[in-house]
Design goal:
Blueprint: E1 10-14, H1 19-30, E2 34-39, H2 46-54, E3 59-63, H3 69-83, E4 88-91, H4 106-134, E5 137-142, H5 155-175, E6 180-187, H6 196-199, H7 202-211, H8 221-232, E7 243-246
Parallel strand pairs: 1-2, 1-4, 2-3, 4-5, 5-6, 6-7
Helix pairs in contact: 1-8, 3-4, 4-5
């Protein structure tokens, strides 16, 4: 994909304040997109907005707790009202509760499902209706290798991400006729604030690096962001319904 291939497009990135979401917002902006940041803390997003504007792109932040679907729909409508459209949607929000499957409660399961899976579906639905009426667009779901392999102690999370992967196929098949492409990325462990507690344990980190079977290293948010930008852009114009696994070889073992 050539530099600035996304000029004159608008991208909405959920959970954009840090980690993969932040890196994706910046990489999309470097490639020409104007950016809407879906965040819980709009004031806290001012620094990221300034970084994006320094790249010569427009940037706004909208309050968006993805577990609150009414607020999420209002956020999407606000982006369209202010920036004119949404051409790219990056569904980045997600989270896990680590506990044995025997101990998972209904509330715990529902909290993971609501944050990771239900939000992805209904945010895609609302933004997708606009894309349909506007001639098309691209949706990139941030899934996980957890949707492809079993991680002990993360049964609820693995289930939720597996659902996102299959959802990606379903939406791609239904919405392709409207010019909407839907893809996903499935990263391995990435160095973020969210993974820092687990990866700070030397034994856990060593085991994780060993399981990343080919490259034997933890990934960076920028490595995921580059894949998101590719899937959102014209270089992926014939790609839909697919999952790009960014796992250093973990699932190839």
């Amino acid at each position: 994909m050539t530099e600035l291939a996304l000029t004159d497009t608008v991208a909405l990135v959920t959970a954009a304040s840090r980690g993969i979401g932040r890196a994706s917002a910046l990489d999309l902006a470097r490639n020409g997109a104007d950016i809407a940041l879906g965040v819980r803390d709009v004031i806290g997003a001012h620094e990221l907005i300034a970084e994006i504007e320094a790249l010569g792109r427009r940037a706004i932040a909208v309050p968006m707790d993805v577990t609150d679907l009414a607020e999420s729909r209002r956020a999407i409508d606000a982006v369209i009202a202010e920036l004119g459209t949404i051409d790219i949607l990056v569904n980045n929000a997600g989270g896990s509760i680590v506990e044995p499957a025997f101990d998972v409660t209904e509330d715990h399961f529902e909290s993971v499902w609501s944050l990771t899976t239900r939000s992805t579906f209904f945010i895609s639905q609302h933004a997708g209706r606009h894309m349909r009426d506007n001639g098309g667009g691209a949706i990139v779901n941030i899934a996980s290798q957890a949707g492809l392999v079993a991680l002990p102690g993360e049964s609820a999370y693995c289930t939720s991400k597996a659902a996102v992967l299959h959802m990606t196929k379903c939406l791609a098949i239904e919405w392709g006729q409207y010019g909407i492409r839907v893809n996903a990325v499935a990263p391995t462990f990435i160095e973020t604030d969210g993974t820092a507690p687990a990866l700070s344990d030397p034994d856990f980190r060593a085991d994780t690096v060993e399981r990343i079977a080919a490259l034997h290293r933890i990934g960076s948010p920028d490595e995921v962001a580059a894949a998101v930008t590719f899937l959102a852009g014209p270089g992926a114009s014939l790609i839909t319904g697919t999952t790009l696994t960014i796992d250093g070889g973990w699932t190839a073992r």
